[in-house]
Amino acid sequence: MTPAVVRARKGGEPLVCLTAYTTPMARIVDAHADVILVGDSLGMVVHGLPSTLGVTLDMMILHGRAVMRARPRALVVVDLPFGAYEAGPAQAFAAAARVMAETGCAAVKLEGGVAMAETVAFLVARGIPVMAHVGLMPQQVNAIGGYRVQGRGADAERVLADAQAVVAAGAFAVVLEKVAEPLARRITEAAPVPTIGIGASAACDGQILVVDDMLGIFSEFRPSFVRRYAELGAMAEAAVAAYAADVRTRAFPGPEHVFADT
Ligand code: KIV
After folding, report:
1. Taking burial as the number of CB atoms within 10 A of a residue's CB, which of 5, 18, 142, 233 is the most buried?
2. Which is nearest to 228 in space by CA: 212, 208, 204?
């Protein structure tokens, strides 16, 4: 998969996108997904941070390299973290070039609409495919005061303008996070590139979820737009409890796990 192939899927079969942060998970996801996002959500779901704001470029590169070691067939997109690109196009180019050179990924994602359009155009003109991200932008949680649905009522025009600005700037796809269905439909109908929804309805050209959310691994909180396809956290907990009981009763190791003298 390439950014051009993803772009060409506009209006076609919905794009399957998931996050991954490690080599084994990238292998599992790659068997079924079109796009693997090394999202800055890794700050919360892997590193236990309270938000994505503490994620650094080095963390993104470390996990981007781990995902690329799976040699995925899917398009790998790596998030630019908070503070690594907002100062201006030159800073964003330096960060994106480092991410691409050091991980081998084919595209980056950044949050922002009208305010980031110049930066998106600057990157695209210099050979860096950009996936944009509008609607709820978690890196702006302090400015917007929470993780609320974006673009309701009169505010819809603001989110629509954000999407139009990054698409006009050359983004090959745009993530719509936590926007109401009528607005997601409107943006999707107007955009010449795929919209990838997260909490933005089936009207989008594709869907993305944080893999730890849909597998039931991350349980700090559960966004209402997530469907749980497994309860791996609960399974892991039960497995660890069984191991602990076996160790305490000397039921593990068993004879089959013990080395003979010869
Ligand atoms: O960081 C992330 O995982 C994301 C997705 C939720 C879109 O940006």
Report:
1. 18
2. 212
135: Cβ below 6 Å to ligand 1? no
pLDDT in tens, 136-154: 999 999 998 889 999 899 8
The one-character DSSP state at 8 is: H
pLDDT at 262 over 90: no
Q: Could you tell me if the CB of 175 is within 6 A of ligand 1?
A: yes
The confidence score (pLDDT) of residue 132 equals 98
Q: Residue of the nearest CA to atom 1 in ligand 1?
A: 39
Give pLDDT, residue 219: 82
Q: Ligand 1: does its nearest atom lie under 6 Å from the Cβ of 79?
A: yes
Q: How many helices (H) and strands (E) does the chain have?
A: 11, 8
**pLDDT number for residue 193:** 98
Which of the listed residues 35, 38, 208 should we mutate to test ligand 1's pocket, taking the one with most ligand atoms within 8 A of CB?
208
Q: 177 catalytic, yes or no?
A: yes
In angstroms, the CA 98 to CA 235 distance is: 38
- pLDDT tens, residue by residue, 9-37: 999 999 999 999 999 999 999 999 999 99
Look at residues 88, 43, 102 and name the one whose alpha carbon lies nearest to residue 110. 88
Spatial separation of the C-alpha atoms in residues 156 and 261, rounded to whole Å: 73
